[in-house]
Amino acid sequence: MTASPGLGEPRTASPDLLRSVFRRHAAGVAVITAAGDRPVGFTATSLSSVAAEPPLVSFGVGTSSSSWPVIAEAEHVGVHILGEHQRELAATFARSGADRFGPSTFWRSGPEGVPLLDGVLAWLVCRVVARVPAGDHRIVIAQVVEGDPVGGGDRPLVYHRGAFTALRD
């Protein structure tokens, strides 16, 4: 058997291997929000469309995340698709200990009391229907209640090789 060009030596499964492989996977960037005693939110690159009928989405959230206690109890969440002009917003919601809803974040209370971020490409408010254990994370499945597909801008923010970036033509 001859080696295939471009294939390196296999490595044993580990968190580092998974991170290294997924740094090469370009992903869209979303911010997930929820209302609790105070609003919470985090940057997610794990957002997926699950089904069209009924309309379902999913995302992963770490159980050690500061947002998890509120997400664990929330009936509704906000899903925000970020545009290439929102790198700093994505970084704010990704940074541990950041004041995510401070003066530099423009937002309002939306349907079901969910915090909605201004200037995003699109947003959804979703009703949480399941939280599935998955290692040190939970996969949240949520049914779309309402949303707006036309926001500010038209080019999505992308996460690739450990950085927020834009698509190239």
From TrEMBL:
Endpoints of the signal sequence: none
GO molecular function annotations of the record: oxidoreductase activity
A Pfam family it matches: Flavin_Reduct
Keywords, ordered alphabetically: Oxidoreductase
Superkingdom assignment: Bacteria
Flavin reductase like domain ranges (all copies): 22-166
EC annotation from Swiss-Prot or TrEMBL: 1.-.-.-
Enzyme class of the recorded protein, top EC level: oxidoreductase
PANTHER family referenced in this protein's UniProt entry, alphabetically: FLAVIN REDUCTASE (PTHR30466), FMN REDUCTASE (NADH) RUTF (PTHR30466:SF1)
Name of the protein in its database record: Flavin reductase family protein
Organism of provenance: Streptomyces castrisilvae
